[in-house]
Amino acid sequence: MTFTSINRCLVRFVKGSLRRWLNGRAQLSGYHTDDHADELKYEPMFTTILDKRRLASQPTLSRLNQKFDQETMKQLQQVNQKLNRRIQTIQPSEHFVFDLDSAIFTTCGHQYGTDYNAHYQTNGYHPLVLFDGLTGDCIKAALRAGNVYTSRNVVSFVGPVIKEYKKINPSATIAVRGDSGFAVPALYELCEEHELKYAIRLKSNNCHELKLPP
After folding, report:
1. Where is the Transposase DDE domain positioned along the sequence (predicted)?
2. Same domain flag for 16 and 120
3. Fewest Cβ atoms nearer than 10 Å: which of 16, 84, 125, 136?
4. SS3 label, residue 164
5. DSSP H or E stretch at residue 177
6. 100 and 181 inside one domain
7. pTM
């Protein structure tokens, strides 16, 4: 389902544009439930920023969330990529530190993809995220099932980003950084293939301890 088809569906329920609802949703980001929207739809700061008498209500936001599918997620990812690309066009950076990380998004109920994560000892999603460690900008994110290992699909996740940024600024230096969950040979090989510096934490083990000087 595309943004256009989503907009057509929502127009049947309330008046307004998808762009305004998305903008309102972004302003409300950080809250754990849509129910906060009912209390904040008349919040002076939000209404002033958006130049609106009131923001979308909780039912409107909930209907919007229900309309998102895999295709619209890809489109939102493309929006983020285009914004980052535009920033680099205006003010190109000479150095990047690609910080790989994962997180746990706790869920309640039986949503599709939710599963038990042994490390965090809770049910939820286990998304993969990539930030620029120098600016804090979010470069990419991907939602994953809760029970997948940290390094699952990391090469296919970060590989296209490396190629894109090398193309944007071939002279820029790129370093990749991650914790022990990303200590897999495939990621090392990817970095070496593109002549990138990388720092991946290794878990302590007997072999390493034996080789350490006393």
Report:
1. 29-206
2. no
3. 136
4. helix
5. strand 173-178
6. yes
7. 0.70
